[in-house]
Design a protein that fits this description.
The chain is about 30% helix and about 30% strand. The protein is of the alpha+beta class and about 200 residues long. The longest helix is centred in the middle third of the chain and has 20 residues.
Length: about 200
Amino acid sequence: MSCQHTVDVGAYLFGSLDLKERSAFERHLSGCATCQAEMLRLAPLPGLLGRLSLEDVENLDEIPECPPKPNRQRRVLILCATVLVVLALAGGVLFLTLPPAPTWAAQDRQTGVEASVSMVTRSWGTEMRFKFDNVKPGARCKVMVFDRQGRREIGGWWGSSHAAYEEIPGSTSFRLDQIDRLEVSDESGPLVTLRP
């Protein structure tokens, strides 16, 4: 199913809508699953594009048409990785343990909202998974991500009518070690701030 307003999602994320258009789109967004899905899909774009420099954009025509062919060293690394995986699966000879994802948690005394977020570093930034308690149902919530240099970007939007066990996804182009804090709010104002 499609919606004629999905074209407004990009303009909304980049702040290109005027106040009246923004309000109308936000009202529409609360009841449109198609636009909500498109919002989740496009949410990382402003942050990712913000990482491009003018030089990156000017040199776009210098990107090679064909990717470079893998060299011998890369083939050896792939072969070694394959052998390790086979050994781990075949007999439990090798136990691979990944460090747990860093988790931040907080409870706001004024709102009573409790939140936790686990974060995983990715090549494009940081993936976030939120859990909330004591958020009023039916609210539209967002997370604003602040880095240590004072920059900020929206890390996600969601509705608060979810089960307590559900994890809510978010993302930011900031690397985990750059993040200063996460501020979660709804239409009524700030709900909770998460810090390391």
